[in-house]
Design brief:
GO terms for molecular function: ATP binding; ATP hydrolysis activity; transmembrane transporter activity. The protein contains 10 helices and 20 strands. With 386 residues, it is α+β, with helices and mostly antiparallel strands. The chain folds into 2 domains: 241 residues, Rossmann fold (3-Layer(aba) Sandwich), CATH 3.40.50; 130 residues, OB fold (Dihydrolipoamide Acetyltransferase, E2P) (Beta Barrel), CATH 2.40.50.100. Strands 6-7-8-3-9-10 form a 6-stranded mixed β-sheet, with helices on both faces.
């Protein structure tokens, strides 16, 4: 097991529950925004709510903050029932997408706002503001105003203001979505490092898969008001439990196939063994095979001791340059007119002179495949084998 996976496992085994959600449901008129949400979050954990627009992730965050009231369910924070406690009485800091800084107050006054309302002494406020400006990487910006700062700098100040009262829980509502790509990468690294340094339990709402995969200890994937899967980034990406998770998180090839029984499957003329799924499907059952682009190996020449059933021939129809690697769209012979996308390192692209029109041979990695029945909704039971 890789080192970072061991660290996450050890973290989860030795951390107590800080926030517990039990049976949270919320409806707006006839629309069910959330349906029976159950979740345990450990103290010091960084959790991302990930999902498409309208899946309920922001509504759930607002319920935790007390800005919305659930129709059913219970919220326990550090052993205390806060299900219907007013927002001002809850122990959290929150950062919004829009920064929400007071334009007529200086940066120092923005950070100090909550401390002033709590009637802290001027010396305590000054020391705390100085500390937070240092943490935000803007030690000399206290006298400036929000309009004088860039978007990334303003978001750092919004984060500092949220941390001013030393909350036990930090809530982040898509805090990076208004920033440019380079600033987002820089700031997400800084936020994660700061969270780890302070040890504050954090929940972040995002629709950006890369943010969730790089920042979170665990990801809660949501869709249509329910939780599809909870797991580490590695589990979510490599072991999706439903078709939605497999399709939503990362790029994936979805291929029509037929189960032959005893862990053997056929896609067109291609037959392959995948023993881990042996007792999940009966012979003749229609299935879908989900395979990541990086799990399709491209050979320029026919491999030694070839088998046309296992190494089908294909033609590259399009090359998509993505920096360190390329996505090759491939029309494959014998796969019932199904095309696939393979991820190929740029060095191999140049070495083998791969381009549109190039004839190649494919090698699938069936051990990495996720296989689901052909139904409207994926069956998590059929995705248990990992």
């Amino acid at each position: 097991m890789p080192r970072h996976q061991k660290q996450r496992k050890k973290f989860m085994e030795h951390s107590a529950d800080y926030l517990v959600l039990k049976g949270i449901s919320k409806s707006f008129g006839h629309f069910n925004a959330l349906n029976d949400i159950n979740l345990h979050i450990a103290e010091g954990e960084f959790v991302c709510f990930l999902g498409p627009s309208g899946c309920g992730k922001t509504t759930l965050l607002r319920i935790i903050a007390g800005l919305e009231t659930q129709n059913q369910g219970q919220i326990i924070q550090k052993g205390k029932d806060i299900s219907f406690v007013k927002p001002v009485k809850r122990d959290y800091g929150i950062v919004f997408q829009s920064y929400a800084l007071f334009p007529n107050l200086s940066i120092a006054e923005n950070i100090a706002y909550g401390l002033v309302n709590r009637r802290q002494s001027s010396s305590v406020i000054k020391a705390r503001v100085t500390e937070l400006l240092q943490l935000a990487g803007l030690p000399d910006s206290g006298d400036k105003y929000p309009g004088q700062l860039s978007g990334g700098q303003q978001q750092r100040i919004a984060l500092a203001r949220a941390l001013a009262m030393s909350p036990g829980l930090l809530l982040l509502d898509e805090p990076l979505s208004a920033l440019d790509a380079l600033e987002r990468v820089r700031l997400r690294t800084e936020i994660r490092q700061l969270q780890q340094r302070l040890g504050v339990t954090t929940i972040m709402v995002t629709h950006d898969q890369e943010e969730a995969l790089t920042m979170a200890d665990r990801i809660v994937v949501m869709n249509h008001g329910v939780i599809e899967q909870i797991g580490t980034p590695e589990q979510i990406y490599l072991q999706p439990r439903t078709q939605f998770v497999a399709s939503f998180v990362g790029k994936v090839n979805v291929l029509r196939a037929t189960a032959l029984g005893a862990g053997r499957f056929r896609i067109g003329i291609l037959e392959f063994d995948c023993p881990v799924w042996g007792d999940k499907f009966v012979a003749g059952q229609a299935v879908k095979v989900y395979l990541r682009p990086e799990d399709i190996v491209v050979h320029r020449d026919q491999p030694s001791q070839p088998s046309s059933a296992e190494r089908p021939r294909g033609t590259i129809t399009k090359m998509e340059f993505l920096g360190a690697y390329c996505h090759a769209c491939i029309e494959v012979e014998g796969l019932d007119k199904q095309s696939v996308t393979a991820a190929i390192p740029l060095s191999e692209v140049h070495q083998n002179d791969l381009k549109a029109g190039t004839k190649i041979f494919l090698e699938l990695v069936p051990a990495k495949a996720r296989i689901f029945p052909v139904t409207k909704e994926a069956s998590a039971v059929n995705a248990e084998a990992a």
